Amino acid sequence: MKTDPKTFIADFITSLTDDLVNTDEDPAVIIDRYHTPDVVQYADGNRIDRDKLIAHTRPVRKNRPEGRMEVHEAVRDGDRLAARYTLHVRQRGKELAIDVHFFGSFAPDGRMREAHLLTRTR
């Protein structure tokens, strides 16, 4: 992670979402591009491993959400990154604002290794 942490997390989430929504590439290939094979995420207390991440791509692709990300703050310490951001999403005629508190670690190549996310929809 050589870039500013705000830019890094914004680019990471935006690129991952763009690849999932705007390509027909195999979801497993996309997930592997952005995550280590042993990735584990905890989103609002729910454990999500690689297989569950891949399964999550189906509804994302079906709904084809549009959105933007507003990073309020982000700090990095070595391979660890903490960020607070808002996802502004439009899908199926609804507009949502989702506040996210993110704590994660990344491999030297920039792939996510672990993440803890707390979210709140406004």
Anisotropy-based shape: globular
- SS class: alpha+beta
The helix count comes to 3
CATH fold label: Nuclear Transport Factor 2, Chain: A
Averaging pLDDT over every residue, what do you get?
94
Strand order, sheet with most strands: 2-1-6-5-4-3
Order of helices and strands: HHEEHEEEE
Percentage beta strand: over 45%
How many discrete domains? 1
Give a count of the beta strands, DSSP E runs of length 2 or more.
6
Distance between the termini: 31 Å
Radius of gyration: 14 Å
Q: Describe the main β-sheet briefly.
A: 6 strands, mixed
Query: Runs with pLDDT <50, length 5+?
Result: none
The CATH class designation is: Alpha Beta
Describe this structure as you would to a colleague:
The protein has a single domain, classed as Nuclear Transport Factor 2, Chain: A (Roll), CATH 3.10.450. The protein has a six-stranded mixed beta sheet with strand order 2-1-6-5-4-3. It has three helices and six strands. The N and C termini lie far apart (31 Å). α1 runs antiparallel to α2 and α2 crosses α3. It has 122 residues and is an alpha+beta fold. It comes from Nonomuraea thailandensis. Keywords: Isomerase. GO terms for molecular function: isomerase activity. Pfam families: SnoaL_2. This is Ketosteroid isomerase-like protein.
Key structural traits:
122 residues, alpha+beta, Nuclear Transport Factor 2, Chain: A, 3 helices, globular
